[in-house]
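Give me the fold.
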Amino acid sequence: MPGGRMELSDYAMTREPVPHGDISFHLKVHEFRTDVSRPERVSSHWHDEYELLAITAGCGSVRVNGSVFPAAEGDIFFLDSGSMHSLSAGLGQRLDICAVVFGLEMLSSYGSDLIQQQYVDSHRNGTLRFRTVFRRGDEVWPCLHCTVEEIRGLARQGHNELLIKSDILRVWHYLCCCPETDCAAMPAPDSRPLLLTKQILQYIHAHYMEDISLAALSSRFNMSGGQFCRFFKSHVNMTAVEYLNYYRIGASCSLLRQPDMAVGDAAVRVGYSNISYFNRMFRRYMHCTPREYKRDSCLP
């Protein structure tokens, strides 16, 4: 489970298709230095796994289910399964993160023993809710910080699955010791704003390679153009056009890493009919031309 800098395309997916480990060991540690030239560092997304998000350098803000939390070096965020979250920071401001993403299998016991009932199922059914952010000065912070740092080190070394699983159980113990006091409430599963946001993003993911217009999007989701733009911006923290371009460029990166994929073909396949506009958007998000990116990514 090596750490490493993530590509834009790795974090651009809203319901992340990026695998966080696999069924044999459902955990992945991501080390990520964000792009200081863009205010939106990690676009709105969610996944079924839990996440421990540690701010390893710099500062910014973390948005979780519509609530915005200031984030500084040392802060640790617990992101619940299914929570919509994003990161932002001022232009030029450093913001580095480590994300420990893990599935429920890392916690579950066999059958329905005391641990499963009292500490796992009670959280899943909403009777036990955890805080969203832990900061220096919080009583449990030193324990959480040391455990996250240990997980980072063990993941870099590799072949430490037993120790990492024990650390995840320790983390869960510390979370249970500090139930909700400053929590980004998870909306109910049928919460209309969250459900609608996910439906819009899933539609974009399925159709980004097509000619998608704001008029078509707003019509599909039964809103006026103005209503749709306001709704999308308030819940995703980007405009719909910005998000569509962000997602398309992320998808194009994956194509350009294929040795036989021409730049023009990649542009068309992700929805750009104008190659000049594609080049301009690619440079905006990747800070190089598509040809430069392809050349560098295909080097042996």
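The chain has two domains: 8-177, 192-297.
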